[in-house]
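Summary of Year 1 activities. Much of the first year was spent building the evaluation harness for sequence design. The harness presents a backbone, in tokenized form, and records the residue chosen at every position. We chose the following record to illustrate the format because it has been used consistently in internal testing since the harness was completed.
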């Protein structure tokens, strides 16, 4: 039976899809972040073969649409006899996609640490691992925070493509509801509002972090007793 409009059940189903959107985004960020950190370290490795291998990986993934990666993970693996549920295929595809972009973002942040910091750490007779862990990476993390938070917005929005492989996230939930009530403008307007509610705080947070990094913390006013 066709319902005449949105009701509480439809709104609950949309919220269910929104929760899965957030969940898939977290899976992609955590998994892609772990892989991206490894890729970033390989990109700055003194081993030339390792650097070129990670460059090839990044160029391959960044040059391939996410939709194609999703199809390869869902349909391609099934052809080889590995049947994956939609959420597993979507998670793998998102992790692969995010790892390439975060790896390149973090590589740039590591290399943006002033060379004087690298040289000072080397003068202290620290090993390369110690230089990275104690000197370079703490500074690179501070530089990387704003672009990483900003990229999280792209992760959230790109999860909408997971509906192609049957995973019920926000867009797929909206499609199913629209097939029932045939009110696409209302349904997709509500989906847009939910996406905005998820992404806008991340955008604001990213801008604040970027401003804090650019201008730094304002120094305290000198005391009246200062000489």
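For this record, the design step produced the sequence shown next.
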């Amino acid at each position: 039976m066709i319902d005449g409009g949105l009701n509480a059940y439809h709104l609950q189903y949309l919220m269910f899809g929104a929760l899965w959107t957030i969940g898939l985004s977290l899976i992609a960020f955590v998994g892609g972040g772990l892989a991206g950190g490894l890729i970033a370290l390989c990109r700055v490795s003194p081993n030339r073969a390792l650097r070129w291998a990670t460059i090839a990986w990044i160029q391959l993934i960044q040059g391939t649409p996410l939709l194609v990666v999703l199809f390869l993970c869902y349909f391609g693996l099934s052809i080889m006899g590995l049947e994956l549920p939609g959420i597993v295929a979507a998670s793998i595809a998102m992790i692969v996609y995010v790892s390439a972009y975060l790896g390149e973002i973090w590589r740039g942040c590591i290399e943006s640490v002033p060379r004087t910091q690298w040289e000072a750490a080397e003068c202290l007779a620290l090993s390369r691992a110690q230089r990275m862990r104690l000197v370079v990476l703490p500074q690179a993390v501070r530089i990387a925070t704003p672009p990483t938070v900003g990229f999280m917005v792209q992760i959230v929005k790109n999860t909408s493509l997971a509906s192609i492989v049957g995973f019920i996230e926000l867009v797929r939930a909206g499609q199913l509801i629209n097939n029932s009530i045939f009110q696409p403008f209302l349904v997709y307007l509500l989906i847009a509002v939910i996406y905005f509610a998820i992404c806008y705080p991340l955008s604001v947070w990213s801008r604040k972090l970027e401003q804090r990094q650019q201008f730094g913390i304002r120094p305290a006013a000198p005391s009246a007793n200062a000489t």
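The chain has a mean pLDDT of 86. Quantitative recovery figures across the full test set are reported in Table 2.
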